[in-house]
Write a structure and sequence with these properties.
Helix content is 44%, strand content 12%. With 461 residues, the chain is an alpha/beta fold. Strand 2, helix 12 and strand 3 form a beta-alpha-beta unit.
Length: 461
């Protein structure tokens, strides 16, 4: 079963259609069809499980709207039954006028937002079918029908392909870039933060949920596979918020393919929440994020924050600091000007961070780490509670120009990850490893007290 070829075939069909005109559209259209196919497999599994225990399973969807009835009615030989299968204008009409409105209605019917029913409603009130030709739509459905989601291996392979689609969408430019953080960077951030089962992990700018999916994989591989742990990981570990419709749907689908059935992702503008209203019960042990920068927030949104600024990333930083539990750990990708800008907001933000958290590590990334974005970025690693005394800087230098053809890889990050373990060491010899040509320690007492300028100045070169 060649998943990759299937995905390629789907893109070829969408490319011919007048309604889908970019990589962003392709993934949006593939996502809703993929989701309904997934839902059908999930329901079949649940019905089988119920039967084994002598219970009756209540299907989420009514007969008429289930995959085998509208998308792929089959004859006794298991082939598409052309007598009853809708195609052409009939199919588009059914999808646009009956299927989508029916599915969107679940948002009102669901008991709470943590159910798969609610996710169904959310997704189908956000997306529209853009495939204009019913013949093209019929072809896409037939391709998607060949995909299997039953085994872990199949899900794993599908999630891998889906990630590749997201990555290509990021490379396709326009506003796709904001959805994609290089996975090797995410994995390194997670290794340093080391989230444990029982901790709550949050990304308030979730995009395609790359941080949450990678954190899930990291924790799943390292934990004892007890029923209790699996349930905890599934239901009470990963939380996210995302404002953009398409990113929200892609993020949900990405998490589902990684094995999280009803992801706790809320569709909302994170910055619309007043940080003074964040209670202890809404706080998290771990925050991993790459918030959008360069955005400009309106004055009424800025009222939700203590440090007023139009720069989206600086507002997100305040939200994250406030959303961490005491002792909580964070790793945040942010543009490097946050370290050196001399405007009041930047200085106030640095002061807030240094006084209320231990900013123990700053990872300085080379230009070109983010494909298509010329912005220089850093990753801030901090723990809330104790003030900062020392900061360890590491300048990443993969020894080549980064870009689309030679992106960041896991090997590039290996030295940083292994050296960062020495930060926790008590012994002098271990800590001495932290001083290399590319890394050094800075005493916070040596900082200029009016500006708290944190820009990386390597004393060893």
């Amino acid at each position: 079963m060649n998943f990759e070829q299937t995905f390629k075939n789907i893109d070829d069909v969408l490319w011919k259609d007048a309604g889908a005109d970019s990589e962003l559209d392709y993934i949006g259209q593939t996502s809703w069809i993929l989701f309904l196919r997934y839902l059908d497999e999930l329901e079949k599994d649940k019905a089988d499980e119920a039967e084994l225990t002598g219970k009756k399973y209540t299907f989420i969807l009514d007969e008429k709207y289930r995959w085998p009835n509208w998308a792929m009615p089959k004859d006794e030989n298991g082939k598409l039954d052309h007598h009853i299968a809708k195609t052409g204008p009939d199919l588009v009409q059914f999808v646009d006028q009956e299927l989508f409105p029916y599915l969107a209605g679940f948002k009102l019917k669901a008991d709470n937002s943590q159910t798969i029913e609610y996710k169904v409603g959310e997704i189908f009130s956000e997306l529209k079918n853009k495939v204009q030709s019913g013949y093209n739509l019929r072809e896409v459905i037939e391709h998607v029908d060949t995909l299997e989601f039953r085994s872990q291996k199949e899900k794993h392979e599908l999630s891998h392909l889906y990630e590749t689609k997201i990555k290509n969408m990021g490379n396709a430019g326009r506003n796709g870039g904001q959805y994609y953080t290089p996975r090797p960077l995410i994995r390194a951030m997670i290794q340093v933060i080391d989230p444990q089962v029982g901790e709550k992990v949050y990304d308030g700018a979730a995009g395609s949920c790359g941080f949450l999916c990678e954190a899930y994989d990291y924790m799943y591989e390292r934990m004892n596979r007890t029923t209790h742990n699996l349930k905890t990981l599934q239901e009470n570990t990963f939380y996210g918020k995302e404002k953009k419709n398409l990113a929200y749907v892609i993020g949900i689908m990405n998490m589902i393919l990684h094995g999280i059935e009803a992801p706790n992702i809320i569709h909302t503008n994170t910055l619309g929440e007043n940080i003074r209203d964040i209670q202890e019960k809404n706080r998290y042990h771990v925050i991993l994020a790459n918030p959008p920068f360069g955005g400009k927030e309106r004055p009424e949104v800025q009222q939700n924050f203590d440090i007023k600024t139009g720069e989206t990333a600086f507002l997100f930083m305040q939200h994250f600091i406030k959303s961490l539990k005491s002792g909580g750990r964070a790793a945040i990708v942010i543009k490097n000007t946050v370290l050196s800008n001399t405007d009041n907001a930047s200085v106030a933000l640095r002061k807030l961070l240094l006084e209320g958290s231990n900013l123990h590590t700053i990872l300085d990334l080379p230009g070109g780490t983010f494909t298509g974005a010329g912005v220089k970025t850093v990753v801030l690693f901090f723990q809330k509670g104790e003030p900062t005394k020392k900061i360890w800087y590491y300048q990443l230098d993969p020894g080549r120009n980064m870009g689309k053809t030679n992106p960041l890889n896991d090997k590039d990050m290996a030295e940083f990850v292994s050296l960062s373990q020495s930060l926790r060491a008590e012994s002098r010899s271990e800590r001495a490893k932290l001083e290399t040509e590319k890394s050094w320690l800075l005493n916070v007492n040596d900082l200029e007290e009016t500006t708290f300028d944190l820009s990386p100045k390597n004393p060893n070169t």
